[in-house]
Amino acid sequence: MTYAIADDLATGTALARLRSYLAQIEMPLDSRLPPERELAETLGVTRAGLRKALAVLESENQIWRHVGKGTFIGSRPIETMADVAAITRRTNPTEVMRTRLVLEPEVARMAALNATSTHIAEMRLCMQRTRAAQTWRQYEAWDNRLHRVIAESTQNSLLLALLDTLNAVRRAVVWGRLRVDKVRPAANHHSFDDHEAIVAAIEDRDLNRAAAAMRAHLENVERNLMRSRPAPEALMPDAREAAVAQAQSAARA
Fold it and tell me: With 0-12 CB in 10 A as exposed, 13-18 as middle and 19+ as buried, what is 228?
């Protein structure tokens, strides 16, 4: 066996074990993983193989690394997290959803205009991974990646930065909770068909259909979210925190 083949096998083994490890651990987004030496021992892989596996997951936006600080679960935070924290304290899930409804249908419209075949292929890979997800954590990681690839395919760096900010707020306000009802999404989870309609429209270069499909998807998400919680703006201030906590069991996009 050549060195290159052995190296590929070691990387593949490390990647499979790392994916399984991340699917099983109960750690919220932005939690720090154990140091590389400890993680390699836990997984039974070499540090070289582990580093390559970490690089793959980082390219998928499932982890991020900071030199000198470690490796963290989730996508890399934007640089103005202090501003995001301030926004998060002033907003609520209702505002997050209304903002998504304003912005993301136009993102889908622009994606239909500018997406490349590579973007389309990655969108379809993300959809396959959401359907194959064995846990909500796996589903949400690939769902998040799908929405970001759609944004990336607009090829508009400013729009992507705005969406990254919105998603950072969304994680803080609506995300960051574990599912308590089921281990994984149901086979008929609404987002599967919603995502297929969005990506098909983008692939067909149908701008209006892409925007409409994204709007319909987000309206489904909003209905699921609002069904599970009273609107915070209708509550007294001391009930607001409880309402937001209740919203954390609602369906994600």
Answer: middle
